[in-house]
Write a structure and sequence with these properties.
363 residues; alpha+beta; Nuclear Transport Factor 2, Chain: A; 6 strands; 36% helix; disordered N terminus
Amino acid sequence: MIKKSIRLLLVGVLLTVFAAGGALASAKFNDVGDYWATEAIKWAAEKGVVEGYPDGTFRPTNHVTEAEFAAILARYVVNTDKDFISQRQPGKHWAQSIYDELRRWELPLNGYTNDIIKDTVITRGDIARVIAAKNGFNLDERQAVYYMYENDLSNGMIPNRMTFDSYGADQPLQRDQITQFMKLLNSKGYTTFLGEPSPKGNAGPADIIGIVDVPKPDAEITDDMFDELAKEKGITNPSQAQQQWERLAKSGGITSEEQLTPEIIEIVREKAVLFPRNDWKIPSDNDFEGYKKAILAELQPKVGNVPIVISKSLYCERDDWTKNKRFIVIVNGKQSWIVDVEKLGKEYLVYDSGVLVEDIFGN
């Protein structure tokens, strides 16, 4: 049995854990304590969906390759040819028979003819599309994430939040996460997309319907739709502005003026300044262009070849006798600089500049 277990591990097939003598072991692993995925891991091991490693570990945070997920799915469902998918084709990838079988349903896997992709980790977004396709829905990634939430097949990666971003579509799938996906899938009856069944009919938890001849729906899944779905399930998502702010933080910050929507401007005025201001103004087009040219000439030698974002909406001018004029400038995506400016005749000048906040997203 040890030799067999090692062979199965080497070919990447995630089956069930067998104890010495061939008896099914209790689904407990020495590296799985009491946490959110414990019950799902136990269930998956007992059902033969996943296996542990010879040293008694499960390694819950290890990533799952596309081929490993294909093997899990092909063995879980009832309408695949189990003899065929267990065959090893000489000179080919260990999972080629599995891919050849799943191709009948046109599941949106990427490694049918590419062994490198077979052995590449699969993302949570890919999983959503494959599970939707298994049940007869030909969805793009955003639609598939909505489908997962709609049918309670995922709670996302951030507690009490149900947005596209909080699902983590671009994140690699972990071994503990696949057990939760499969356990939730096993517990569900028929599923819907936007309240409607698949054109191919209803699929039970362990059936593959696939997406042969199923057109892609043209429904655009907006952020507002995620928010409404969350409310239906008792969750209040952050405001759209806050979600956009979080996206900017993850993507490198504010690197262009186009990112400064009115909602983001309001947040910048709070996060990029050390105290509330009530002297925000909008300079004329001519003054703005003059100040902008002067600011760039002042800052570029200091900061080098990094983004410098200057906005009309981040200009303030004191109402008292000093008439001090200054811009809040975003440098390198996350720094706010305070830049004092002045106009002498037709000349635009910078007479002081420096970092005000090192990281506006951490402020």
